[in-house]
Design a protein that fits this description.
The chain has 8 helices and 17 strands. The protein has 365 residues and is α+β, with helices and mostly antiparallel strands. The protein binds fructose -6-phosphate (F6R) and magnesium ion (MG) (2 copies). Keywords: Carbohydrate metabolism, Gluconeogenesis, Hydrolase, Lyase, Magnesium, Metal-binding, Schiff base.
Length: 365
């Protein structure tokens, strides 16, 4: 049976500040998606949040980039924004960058990850959701899951994984893409994905072309001198069989790594694996969070979720993240905690430079 899995998300208003979502907004989304399911538009759905981001997890049979599904998601966000406005939540409607829907939510603010699959006799999937970071944040864990035998022993000892995987990589600033085959091209692949602010993994497939993972990476729009559309990504990963085991998919998050985002989208900080309940970035608006919900698909029905990072085995990773957060915070406004100038979400550099222009003197040899 062909099933499309669509995860569409947006920050429609934060509670309090940018630290969490309000239950009334989630309840409004629930109402809309229940109606869509009743009408037969959706097979099933699950509403959740990651920090201040509202997440619509949906299954249907309309394929990816479907206008009806995208419009319904957009209308849901618009309706939830009304709730956010009534409650005067912070940044109500912040990710709805356009006034009217125009066929596809991509480029309109919300993030989208979708895949159409032939549901296997048993189809375990993991949906990762992150807050206070950008889409390149999936590069390191996706590489480890699908190309690093120190993480995924299946690449070495499982016959159905031994051929490796293909990585589709997007240059998000120049809007072009390339596919690398691993293991033979891992050095070439790493040249690019090691620079996650510009090159982001869009999808991973088996060498036979079966989709294994897809992220919400999309081309960035340069608006008013700054890139938009890069915030708080999601990623869908299929597990078991010809794909990595659930434990191999979660393992990269046991070693917290630095990502761009955190306070004012302008800092490097450790990504911390947490339960949905703990996706409340509060310290210096962070540190960045990642949640993982596991489902078994059953004829498109979402059996679950299991809150995968709630497990005790991620306690050490959380502690490590917190220690790394202390270390990074000790730099205050200095790089490498603060992002390099060209990567910061916003800066006063032009205004301050203008004000001080007359005081800059040419250097003598
Ligand atoms: C980062 C984020 C927050 C805000 C910060 C300032 O992605 O959402 O760190 O950037 O709280 O928010 P504003 O500018 O809305 O007052
Ligand atoms: Mg927000
Ligand atoms: Mg957010």
């Amino acid at each position: 049976m062909k099933v499309t899995l669509s995860v569409i998300k947006a920050d429609i208003g934060g509670f309090v500040g940018h630290s969490d979502s309000h239950p009334q907004c989630l309840a409004r989304a629930e109402k809309h998606l229940a109606e869509a399911k009743k009408k037969g538009m959706l097979i099933d759905y699950h509403i959740t949040k990651c920090g201040d981001d509202l997440q619509l997890i949906m299954t249907h049979q309309k394929g990816i980039n479907n206008k009806v599904i995208h419009e319904m998601a957009w209308d849901t966000f618009v309706s939830c924004t009304e709730v956010a406005k009534e409650l005067k939540l912070y940044g109500a409607g912040q990710d709805l960058l356009c006034d009217a829907f125009s066929g596809n939510v991509k480029g309109m603010g919300p993030g989208v990850a979708e895949m159409e699959i032939d549901e296997r006799p048993s189809e375990p999937i993991i949906i990762f959701m992150a807050d206070k970071t950008s889409s390149g944040a999936w590069n390191l864990p996706l590489y480890k899951m699908f190309a690093d035998p120190f993480n995924t022993i299946g690449l070495v000892i499982a016959e159905n994984m031994h051929d490796g995987f293909s990585f589709e990589v997007h240059d998000v600033k120049e809007s072009k893409g390339i596919t690398f085959n691993t293991p033979e091209e891992i050095y070439d692949l790493l040249v690019f994905i090691g620079a996650p602010s510009r090159f982001a993994i869009k999808s991973v497939s088996t060498r036979k072309g079966e989709i294994a993972a897809v992220s919400s990476t999309q081309k960035l729009a340069l608006l008013a001198g700054r890139y938009v559309g890069k915030d708080d990504p999601v990623c869908i990963v299929r597990a078991q069989g010809a794909f990595p085991a659930v434990g191999e998919i979660l393992e990269p998050f046991t070693q917290p790594y630095l990502v761009e985002g955190w306070m004012r989208g302008s800092h490097n900080g450790p990504i911390m694996p947490v339960s949905v309940e703990d996706s409340t970035p509060t310290r210096f608006d962070g540190p960045p969070r990642v949640t993982a919900l596991g489902f078994q698909l059953s004829n498109g029905m979402l059996i679950g979720p299991r809150d995968m990072f709630k497990d005790k085995s991620f306690d050490n990773a959380r502690q490590k993240s917190l220690d790394m957060a202390d270390m990074m915070r000790s730099h205050g406004p200095f790089e490498p905690h603060r992002l390099p100038l060209e990567e910061m979400e916003y800066t006063t550099m032009p205004q301050v430079s203008k004000k001080l222009a007359g005081r800059f003197k040419p250097l003598k040899d």
